[in-house]
Amino acid sequence: MPADVFSDENLRFQGGPSLYVRLNALWMQRRVLQRATLAGLLAGTLLAFVLPREFESRTQLMPPDNQSSSGMAMLAAMSAKTGSLFGPMAGDLLGIKSSGALFVGILRSQTVADRLVNRFQLRRVYGIRYEQDARLKLADNTAISEDRKTGIISITVTDRDPRRATDIAHAYVEELNQLVAELSTSSAHRERVFLEDRLTSVKHDLDQASLDFSQFASKNKTIDLKDEARAMLQGAATLEGELIATESELKGLQAIYTDSNVRVRSLQARINELRHQMEKLGGGSSDPSIRQPDSADSTHPSLRNLPILGVTYADLYRRVQLQEAVYETLTQQFELAKVQEAKETPSVKVLDPATLPEHRSFPPRLLIIFLSSSLTLVAAILFILSRERWAATDPGEPGKVLAQEVFQTLNAKMPWAPPNGSQMQAWTHKIWVKFASQNGSSSKPNSDPELPRI
User: Fold this and answer.
1) Which of 19, 112, 212, 419 can bridge 426 by disulfide, Cβ–Cβ 3.0-4.6 Å?
2) Can you tell me the distance from the alpha carbon of 303 to that of 355, in angstroms, rounded to the nearest whole number?
3) If one looks up domain 205-324 in CATH, what number appears?
4) Residue 99 parent element (H or E)
5) pLDDT category, 81, cuts 50, 70, 90?
6) pLDDT single digits (tens) 347-383
């Protein structure tokens, strides 16, 4: 093949260099392209292995249960079937999608972020001074999304430590569950809070009533006033009957014996004891000469005091019974309210728990190496084609003349150019000369006005 086949005269069209001319220029500079590609390959490899590794841990939550009423839910379903515009609006009003959006909003809230930042000490982990910056960094490392069709909520956490990424993903679910329970505003929740406060008050009243009743019963030696009164009346009747029989027997003996007789004295002592027991049981005697029994020595109240004690006893006993009935009723209602609150509170159900990632998610090393090599190759091709086009341009073309003047002006202000009277340029030129001498290169300025060649 003749040597002038690929010459500019044979391969140049009127509109500029043809495709064959460009390919010929690239073929002639193939070593440059090889070096550029190799340099890009090495740079990409270095960058791919220098970038820190990151791991992703992902957890998925089931959509929360809908708590809308059956009638309104049926209305929304009928509107959806008939194609009415009320269907989507009814769905929004009924909360069919609001619960999932509520979960996403809570997960993205500042409260959850602050708790996680403090829980995992993310300011120290991220090397950030302010808590606000730590929240932003955590938000950048977390992706929270909701599938519009299924309603499944996905939480993806990225971190350099795979264990920490898994723990943060678990912590998101825990904080969501806790906040949903704390911020529940359902009617059952309000009822449960009211009953809880009311139970505390009633419990205090019940304890006070029981204490008053026990102190009264202990002071007046009463256990069960009704049974005690019945027993005391039966005992008084028994004592009175025995006293009458003993007195009759004493009158019969007095008709036969004198008062000094042993049997007469024994019956007299028996009658005195029975009368003493009667007076003690009855609470005193009308005879002032007879000693009144001391209430401190008695193990039970007297019959005379029973009516007075009965009123106070009944009042205190009634208070205790009333408070016990109220407390029992409120306790049952409180338990029912807790069950209803648990039903109405949106539950956090984990579909896929976060697991420890086994492979890194970043950096994509092969992709980085490929892109680096490709970009350097493309840059080298563009540089070669631009240089060839620059060389083929007419020197008298205004655009080229302007570019040469701009290049010369800028080149005169560069550090490698001789000092032009500027102290700053002289100082940078001195540093450049010193640096060039250490590297064995020339410090003379490039006087070629054309673009530098590879």
Assistant:
1) 419
2) 80
3) 1.10.287
4) helix 98-107
5) very low
6) 788 888 988 888 888 888 899 899 989 999 899 888 8
